[in-house]
User: What shape does this take?
Amino acid sequence: MKVQFIDLPQMRPYYSDEDGELWELTDAFHAVVDDVPITVPAGFVTDGASIPRILWRVCGHPMSTRRLPAAVLHDWLYYSITDFTRAEADQAYRDGLITLGFPRWKAAVEYYALRLFGGSHYAREGK
Assistant: This one.
């Protein structure tokens, strides 16, 4: 998939506890996936990349890494009513990481982690 980020997500803290953090988009965020414009509206709440807290030292804080645009786009595709399937949302995340300069092998590792463990977060599974 071809993924282009038009701008960067602007976020503010929304909620935090011992299990993780949620952040709110303060301005609309824009991307294009295979020539389909995507607008993530201000007010959308996300945990960024769903990195378990124990891995933050290795992977970085979910909201302070350069993977944030791909993570916000992916979360929006999972939770919104779009024509993107779960598999396509996962592919958009992988290809978004590559667009952001991640090595292909690292993007592939994160993609397969999503394929294995992301299903419980997909809002429209079975629909």
Remarks:
- The helical segments are 56-59, 68-79, 86-99, 104-117.
- The radius of gyration is 14 Å.
- The chain has one domain: 3-120.
